[in-house]
Design brief:
Chain A: Keywords: 4Fe-4S, Iron, Iron-sulfur, Metal-binding. Chain A: Pfam families: Fer4_11. Chain A: It comes from Carboxydothermus islandicus. Chain A: InterPro entries: 4Fe4S_Fe-S-bd (IPR017896), 4Fe4S_Fe_S_CS (IPR017900), ET_IronSulfur_Cluster-Binding (IPR050954). The complex is a heterodimer of chains A (179) and B (723). By secondary structure, chain A is of the alpha+beta class. Chain A has one domain: Alpha-Beta Plaits (2-Layer Sandwich), CATH 3.30.70. Chain A has six helices and ten strands. In chain A, the strands form four sheets. A four-stranded mixed sheet of chain A has the order 8-1-10-9. Chain A has a two-stranded antiparallel sheet with strand order 2-3. With 723 residues, chain B is α/β, with parallel strands linked by helices. In chain B, 29% of the residues lie in helices and 17% in strands. Chain B is built from 24 helices and 27 strands. In chain B, helix 6 links the parallel strand 6 and strand 7. The radius of gyration of chain B is 26 Å and the shape is globular. The N and C termini of chain B lie far apart (67 Å). The relative contact order of chain B is 0.16. The chains are: A alpha+beta (179), B alpha/beta (723). At the A-B interface, helix 1, strand 2 and strand 3 of A face helix 2, strand 3, helix 3, helix 8 and helix 9 of B.
């Protein structure tokens, strides 16, 4: 069984949001509902200033707080590591939204359920990369299988010293960041 | 076969391919995925038009509806990647606010008119104007796209010299400098640069996908990227070093670089000896441009200029000053481009790995093709703007569209009575909106061809709706080492036409139909003939490579008169400049409460064309005014406050973004917002339009619009959300 993971190399991120729109188009999301979020911060004083970006989406945690708090079992984790939501079982209580330390959930106003990145499981099952990875114009995103020793994701995580976001929270995310 | 808009379905079905789902246990999500994949699905290879760079795309059509657009790996532009705008393309196709039928203005209102009637009435009017005032009374402006050759034929056949592009509001200074000095306009071997200097070239907000892919590869290999920009742009965030230069002074920085390179003999002596002329003249000129001198002007410490120059020269020949794109900013922009061109030559980087390169393939010029139309004659009249004439020899082929209102209003050098704009919205992209509106009102005939009701279209007597890029064919494209075709993914949703057919029909009614007795297939086959490729083959494959894609690094043929790079050139002397690049201050100076007004692109919008796209609109619905924290403090402005930005030409109100990431003497806004066409309901009056602030300027050497040569006063007019 594969164990899917992603690397986002922020040093190669163009902050262009191609990933955001590719994801919206892939899933036919209503405008404004985004599974990836570009955060920005400014550090320092002119002229010794810099701006930093960070892309955030569902981290597909191994110890996902959203699964722990879900009263109906609508949110679940597949054996391949992908965390999904079964809308039919979702009561719309939004506990998961509150529980997610990455604030990765967004409300779909048409369905009244809190949605999020699905690691494009339908593409992955066809041997394709998720839409955000496939479109990334900086080639800043990598997707692979941690169970496959020959997958280049091992080399990328190791070489680039990619680390999970807020590893200290103990959520064991499936996304590794280079910053 | 005559290709009509109706016959494409058959063609694109042939290109269709659908990946089958692999077997396995049918889980809930797999069932959902399979349900999403079933139905009539086809994949159509085509070319994006969400901006002008024309990346390859694969359009996924399900049950006759475009559901997804992805990059085409076979296409050199994008190599399988597309940006946010490209990904949002189907939202243009299905925009309810699109133009859906031809319109005619009656009184203050637009009313539907049939295509036949529109062509007939426009044709009659054109013939009448030509008979009364001569063919030069027609000005035709365009953002040149794949059907540009049709526009060339139309104008030459009609007899008008006034076909003109958006160049002066974009790249005129670059083209003028490099054509005169190098014989051609080069681009950068981005993927292999080792030391890259950008003078305001914002690679990740003015996006060309292949170039972004390239620069990221270079960065990963350890290239040093330097961003000269008064604003800490998204490219600065990516770069190794931000140089927060005073606006309009990049020229001084580059002249000091030349001074240092020559003084320290850091240049490639062999290359300079073998491939350039004029070195001694440059050396004499730059003696006075010391780093200390440049520090005074640029605000950048001499030590920084010295360090960057030394590091840069050590990386030669993979050391490049990017020629750039939108460089029509200052009165000294052409000098700045010339200085960069000198530095590139001193590095000997032309044709080298990580240096400058010329395009490998080109189509022949339409004027040189024969057989499908009667011989095309050069128009008798001179151009309305003087481009190519005695005063503006270097603006030849580029023109000065921003000066059209002036010429209409003055009636000089001759009366202009008709104006046709195709894929171009100068009322908002060529300075001073008020003046454009006033001038266009004077004309007897204004026709606009577009996919949506632009502000220029609002001024038209006739609005001719073009099919979007997802609904039409265009003549072929050359991209890198390949030829490619734009072809329809779906039939036109509305009563629209491809611009090729619009021009043809207009020609027939304007009395020049004999120049357009060919089909798009015949026209394209003629273009493709030198490559032994046919239109039909291209329809099937979408993209055809012309070689194995390998690069041979060597100095290419230099097509100047001397056969060498002309560091000193008499061409500039004829245009009123010196033979070598020289310091020239920018046109206006900040101070006494007046701030430099800067503007530029964002990664998620294009020019004035994408603001009604529902995905892109939701992503960035309005712009803000970047203003330095200390400058804002002095003016009593807090983050989010509503401010008025006022120049000598007009004013706008906009929210302030108080930031450390911009030079204290400058303010900045993303352009394209603040649309005032009520037909574009989402975009209408969202944010502020730069076009009310910017004058219709003209830079003396290239004829460029120098659209950052404007000072503004900023004052608070309302509290922000947090006030």
């Amino acid at each position: 069984m594969p164990k899917y993971a992603m690397v986002i190399d922020m040093t190669k991120c163009a902050a262009c949001q191609a990933c955001t729109v590719a994801c919206e188009a892939e899933w036919g999301l209503p405008p404004g509902e985004k599974f990836t979020r570009l955060e920005e911060r400014e550090i320092g004083k002119f002229p010794n200033v810099r701006r930093e970006f960070l892309l955030i989406q569902c981290q597909h945690c191994d110890k996902a707080p959203c699964i722990e708090v879900c009263p109906t079992g609508a949110t679940y984790k597949r054996e391949d590591g992908i965390v999904l939501l079964d809308d039919k079982r979702c009561a719309g209580c939004k506990y998961c939204m509150v529980a997610c330390p990455y604030q990765a959930r967004v409300i779909n106003h048409e369905k009244g359920v809190p949605e999020k990145c699905r690691f494009c499981y339908h593409r992955v099952e066809q041997g394709k990369k998720p839409a955000c990875v496939s479109t990334c114009i900086g080639e800043a995103r990598y997707f692979g299988d941690l169970e496959d020793p020959n997958d280049e994701i091992h080399r990328i995580i190791h070489q680039k010293q990619a680390k999970p976001l807020r590893g200290d929270l103990g959520t064991k995310p499936s996304i590794y960041y280079v910053r | 076969m005559k290709l009509t808009r109706r016959s494409f379905l058959k063609a694109s079905a042939a290109t269709g391919a659908l990946a089958a789902l692999s077997g396995g246990v049918m889980s809930f999500e797999r069932w959902a995925a399979k349900a999403a994949e079933t139905g009539d699905v086809k994949l159509v290879p085509s070319i994006c038009e969400m901006c002008g760079t024309k990346c390859g795309i694969i359009v996924k059509v399900k049950n006759g509806r475009v559901v997804k657009i992805e990059g085409n790996k076979e296409h050199p532009n994008g190599k399988g990647k597309i940006c946010a705008r490209g990904n949002a393309g189907m939202k243009l196709l299905y925009d309810p606010d699109r133009l859906k039928q031809p319109l005619k203005k009656e009184g203050d209102k637009f009313v539907p008119i049939s295509w036949e009637q529109a062509f007939k009435e426009i044709g009659e009017k054109l013939k009448e104007i030509k008979a009364k005032y001569g063919p030069e009374a027609l000005v035709w402006s365009t953002h040149p796209e794949l059907a540009y050759d049709y526009e060339v034929i139309f104008n030459l056949a009609f007899g008008s010299p006034n076909l003109t592009s958006h160049a002066p509001t974009c790249y005129s200074p670059r083209n003028v400098a490099y054509k005169a000095m190098y014989g051609e306009v080069p681009t950068v071997d981005y993927g292999n640069v080792k030391y890259y200097i950008s003078c305001g070239r914002n690679l990740v907000e003015g996006i060309n996908v292949s170039q972004v892919l390239g620069i990221m590869k270079a960065k990963e290999k350890g290239a040093k990227l330097i961003a000269l920009d008064p604003r800490y742009s998204n490219f600065a965030a990516l770069a190794s070093e931000w140089v927060p230069i005073r606006p309009g002074t990049d020229l001084a920085f580059l002249l000091a670089m030349i001074h240092l390179i020559i003084k320290n003999e850091w240049y490639d002596k062999e290359f300079v000896k073998n491939y350039t002329i004029g070195f001694e003249e440059v050396a004499a000129e730059v003696e006075k441009y010391t780093p200390k001198w440049a520090e005074e002007i640029t605000g950048i410490p001499a030590a920084t200029i010295e360090r960057i120059t030394e590091e840069f020269a050590k990386a030669k020949p993979a050391a490049v000053v990017d020629p750039g794109w939108h460089v029509s900013r200052y009165m000294n922009s052409t000098e700045m481009l010339r200085a960069g061109a000198v530095i590139n030559a001193l590095m000997g980087n032309l044709g080298m790995k990580g240096g400058l390169k010329f395009p490998k393939y080109k189509f022949t010029k339409v004027e040189e093709r024969e057989g499908l139309w009667p011989k095309l004659e050069k128009p008798k009249a001179k151009r309305f703007d003087g481009a190519g004439g005695e005063k503006w020899p270097l603006a030849k082929g580029l023109g000065m569209i921003q000066m059209l209102p002036e010429h209409i209003l003055s009636g000089q050098p001759y009366p202009i009575k008709a104006y046709i704009a195709n894929h171009h919205n100068p009322v908002r992209s060529a300075g001073n909106s008020e003046k454009w509106i006033e001038a266009l009102k004077q004309l007897e005939l204004v026709v606009v061809i577009d996919v949506q009701m632009s502000e220029t279209a609002m001024m038209a007597h006739y609005v001719l709706p073009e099919s979007t890029y997802l609904e039409r064919f265009d003549p072929p494209q050359i991209a890198g080492n390949a030829v490619a075709l734009r072809q329809p993914a779906v039939e036109p949703l509305h009563n629209t036409m491809g611009v090729d057919d619009i021009i043809k029909e207009l020609a027939h009614e304007a009395g020049i139909g004999q120049y357009f007795n060919f089909t798009l297939e015949q026209f394209s086959d003629q273009m493709l003939k030198p490559f032994n490729i046919t239109f039909k083959q291209l329809m099937e494959k979408g993209v055809i490579a012309l070689d194995d894609g390998k690069t041979e690094y060597k100095v290419p043929e230099i097509k100047t008169d001397s056969g060498k790079i002309e560091l000193a050139s008499g061409a500039f002397e004829k245009a009123g400049a010196k033979r070598v690049p020289t310091w020239k201050p920018p046109g206006v100076t900040e101070g006494n409460g007046k701030l430099r007004f800067l503007h530029g692109h964002t990664a998620v919008h294009t020019h004035t064309s994408t603001f009604n796209n529902e995905y892109l609109h939701a992503l960035m619905p309005e712009n803000v005014l970047w203003i330095n924290t200390r400058t804002a403090e002095k003016l009593g402005i807090k983050n989010g406050d509503l401010v008025e930005v006022k120049s000598d030409y007009g004013k706008v109100t906009i929210k302030a973004k108080v930031t450390e990431a911009i030079h204290p003497d400058a303010v900045y806004m993303v352009h394209g917002f603040g649309g005032f066409s009520p037909y574009q309901k989402k975009a209408y009056k969202k944010g502020a339009s730069t076009s009310f602030i910017i004058p219709c300027h003209v830079e003396p050497v290239s004829g460029a619009a120098a659209d950052c040569e404007v000072l503004v006063e900023v004052r608070k007019v309302g509290g922000g959300a947090n006030a």
